[in-house]
Design a protein that fits this description.
This protein is of the alpha/beta class. It has two domains: about 150 residues, Response regulator (Rossmann fold, 3-Layer(aba) Sandwich), CATH 3.40.50; about 290 residues, Alpha-Beta Horseshoe (pyruvate-formate lyase- activating enzyme), CATH 3.80.30.20. It is built from 15 helices and 15 strands. Helix 4 packs parallel to helix 5. The protein is globular.
Length: about 500
């Protein structure tokens, strides 16, 4: 059977992990697989975060103001600009469709599309091309766990099935039945109106049984650096943050870990196969399983000498969270050159409201210990959380400023209401009367909202000071040993 995989995900810095898994499973079953990556024909995604320029503090503030102002014409203009600046639009969309047409000439039996919801329009056109040749299309992605989004895509002409959840256990059955025109409505994870709200495939438990992802199809010469993505587990050991939707989407539901032996075997395999010395661990929190975390630190250089790697961690309140000064020193010696953790707020009151599980004293110690170990530290922070007051923004600014010597990047995010997140339920109950919530935006899988506090002059001034402090940090060069990961993590 011939299968075409169309990858419409993050393709700017390294291969897409989910596509690698799909390709490996299908090839192991004897399928003839072709992967279509937009990077092959010059369509580049945006890097995650790169070194900033001084003037960007002003453009970021203008962007923030235009999002929170009560002046309606500004909202309309912002919406038009947002859609115009989509990663896949105009010439990029044409390039992708031309590439799909060329691939369809090789007569695949089925087409699988992995995409973010913002790429709906180009996927509609891909499905139309396939329909002309009677080639069925299966679409999947993290956001299809939301029934309103899944229903929109499922009613698109040419789409035979919309899948939500982890596909590995049912992938071969799904692809085979769709290609043969058989009914797939009873397969776990396939959306149907009668299954709305409870249609996602259950979390995969036996992670070691999944073959190592196959990245051989990706345009390695087009990437700035040869980086291998890897996950040691799925989900998050903490899994309680009120704003987070990751633990509700696809592989995020409940925490499960691979065995240390299986992870080390893959690292050695990918290192030798692709000659790659850079690894990015995509776990929501790599220190969720301390046995795997410490086992990696102890063994990664043995199985792949000379590798450098990055990871996200959670500075949680466990007595032992694996992030002591000694742990971090050993991690640095084992090749960890960059780490990301969620500060989110410099106000302990707001952190408690978020159910973040972070104590600022431990966060402070972690930042200093990681930096002193020679690890590039990247923080994420949120402005505009429903319980946040002006004083809380000022506390965040002060905390970041006081630690600026130890931090190399700060990703400052404006609070978003994600469908299915605990905070959405709180807003439904009007726990925060100063916030008005609109209907789901199916293009971006987010719930638009208005926070009356954010447009007030004092709040805007406090936010600008926070933006200015983060800009000063983000203008630094990364540590030389971490520079290969600029824009990738």
């Amino acid at each position: 059977m011939r299968t075409l995989l169309v990858d419409l995900n993050n393709f700017s810095r390294y291969p897409t992990l989910s596509i690698g898994y799909l390709a490996a499973i299908l090839r192991n079953a004897g399928h003839d697989v072709e992967v279509l990556s937009p990077l092959f024909f010059g369509v580049h995604g945006f890097p995650r975060q790169v070194r900033e320029k001084p003037w960007q503090q002003y453009s970021r503030f203008i962007s923030h103001w235009s999002a929170v102002t009560t002046f309606k014409p500004v909202h309309s203009a912002r919406g038009l600009l947002k859609r115009k600046r989509q990663i896949i639009s105009g010439q990029s969309s044409t390039a992708i469709l031309d590439a799909v047409k060329n691939s369809l000439e090789r007569k695949p039996d089925v087409v699988l599309i992995s995409a973010y919801t913002m790429y709906y329009e180009v996927c509609v056109e891909i499905a139309a091309l396939c329909r002309q040749q009677n080639i069925p299309v299966i679409v999947g992605g993290n956001s299809f766990v939301v029934p309103e989004i899944a229903d929109r895509w499922a009613t698109t002409n040419g789409v035979a099935a919309v899948f939500s959840g982890e596909p590995e256990p049912v992938l071969l059955e799904l692809v085979t039945k769709v290609a043969q025109g058989e009914d797939v409505s009873q397969i776990s994870g396939v959306y149907g109106k009668g299954k709305a709200g409870n249609f996602s495939a259950p979390p995969l438990q036996s992670l070691d049984a999944v073959p190592f992802p196959d990245f051989s199809d990706f345009p390695w010469d087009c990437y700035p650096n040869r980086i291998i993505p890897i996950m040691t587990g799925r989900g998050c050991e903490w899994g309680r943050c009120t704003f987070c939707s990751d633990v509700l989407m696809s592989a995020g539901r409940t925490f499960r870990s691979r065995s240390l032996e299986n992870v080390l075997e893959e690292i050695q395999y990918q290192h030798q196969r692709f000659g790659a010395d850079l690894f990015v661990f995509l776990d929501l929190k790599l220190n969720s399983d301390l046995h795997v975390w410490r086992g990696l630190i102890e063994n990664i250089q043995r199985v792949a000498p000379g590798v450098r790697w990055t990871a996200s961690v959670h500075v949680d309140s466990r007595q032992d969270n694996g992030l002591s000064a000694e742990d971090l020193q050993r991690a640095a010696q084992a090749g960890l050159v960059r780490t990301t953790c969620g500060l989110e707020s410099g106000s302990q009151r707001v952190l408690s409201s978020m159910a973040k599980g972070v104590k600022l004293e431990r966060m402070s110690a972690f930042i200093k210990d990681a930096s002193n170990a020679g690890i590039s530290v990247r923080l994420t922070s949120i402005v505009g959380y429903p319980s946040e007051e002006i004083e809380d923004i000022e506390k965040t600014t002060n905390f970041i400023a006081e630690h600026s010597a130890y931090i190399e990047r700060v990703m400052l995010n404006r609070f978003s209401v994600m469908p299915g997140s605990p905070i959405q339920e709180q807003l439904k109950k009007q726990a925060y009367p100063h916030i008005a919530v609109a209907n789901l935006d199916v293009d971006y899988s987010v719930i638009p909202h208005r926070n009356q506090r954010l447009a007030k002059t004092r709040n805007l001034m406090a936010t600008y000071r926070l933006i200015r402090v983060t800009n000063q940090i983000n203008r630094k060069p990364l540590l030389e040993k971490a520079s290969a990961f600029e824009g990738a993590f």
